[in-house]
Amino acid sequence: MAQPILGARAYTKRWFKSRRKTVGASEAAAVLGMSKWRQPLDVYQSKIDGDQVTPNKAMKRGHDFEAQCLKMYSDRVGGSLYDKVPMLIHPDHEFMSATPDAIWINDLSVKGKSIFAADYIPVEAKTTESMDEWGAEGTSEIPTDYVIQAQQHMAVTDTARCDVPVLFGFPFKLYVVERNEDIIAALVDAEKELIERVANEDPPEINWEHPRTPELVKRMYEVTEAVIELSDEMCERWLEMEGLRDQRGKLDKQIELIKAEATHEMGAAGIARMRDGRELVRKKQRREAYSVEARDVTSLRCRKQK
């Protein structure tokens, strides 16, 4: 078992700096073009500009419950759990890194050895409110992003298995991902190419089919005083967008009108049965007040030329 190179302690300034020179396990699926959250260009931009990922509600929740998830995992499997894992770098591919949430260690094999010279398994703890994309416990039927993340952990640590303990609310389940050499080989090639692109300032092509491309493009460019002439093709596309926007507005009004008509027919009834076996359900729900953190937002609109 080849030992990984030990890097910076997780979430320190040195760790974030090192991430700009390597592809981490959480970025692996995006680089491979298999993530529903990010694409290769997202990862490229993070290396050029530095990490700009703002923790969302799910990420904050995961961090808060990670310790509890790992404790339940430890109680289930025994052995010892080391949860202060630094950045680990592949011994042969310096562009490939991983920071597992923990390392499970076989107590019988560690005796006086370094953790990474003993029998160990990388552990990636998750929390989620939805069981969508999660299969039977004990299998590797988990979201694709996490499968690829686990493969990167195994590539860097030269292990044959990665455990993925999960809290679904509070029910605990344990999933196991086995090493896949084909996926790992693809990761090595894709990550090497991306880091070379970063060095050469050669960004990957935008994937216009990816659902989060609009968010990515908004983050890519600063607003200056420069003025350009829009291409004829883009002018036509903009006119097409305006037509679609008008159609959407009319459709939204029709939808709300039909819903109002149904509400009127129901009167005070909370349930109305439909002839196809479904039913309309009305109930009051309290919408809590919330505040949004201040941030810069770039808008795009059309106006007459000055």
Walk me through what this model shows.
With 306 residues, the chain is of the alpha+beta class. It has a domain at 5-205: Lambda Exonuclease, Chain A, CATH 3.90.320.10. It contains 9 helices and 11 strands. The strands form 4 sheets. Strands 1-3-4 form a 3-stranded antiparallel sheet, covered by helices on one side.
Supply the key terms.
9 helices; 3-stranded antiparallel beta sheet; 11 strands; Lambda Exonuclease, Chain A; single chain; 306 residues; alpha+beta
Largest sheet: 3 strands, antiparallel
Look at the helices and sheets and give the structural class.
alpha+beta
Order of helices and strands: EHHHHEEEEHEEHEEHHHEE
Average pLDDT for all residues: 88
Q: Residue share in helices?
A: 40-55%
How many DSSP H or I helices?
9
Poorly predicted tracts of residues:
none
Total strands: the figure is: 11
Taken as a percent bin, the fraction of beta residues is: 5-15%
Q: Name the shape in a single word.
A: globular
CATH architecture of the domain at 5-205: Alpha-Beta Complex
User: In CATH's first tier, which class of the domain at 5-205 applies?
Assistant: Alpha Beta
Would you give the CATH topology of the domain at 5-205? Lambda Exonuclease, Chain A
Query: How far apart are the first and last residues' alpha carbons, in Å?
Result: 68 Å
Please give the order of strands in the largest beta sheet: 1-3-4
Oligomer: single chain
Report the C-alpha radius of gyration, rounded: 25 Å
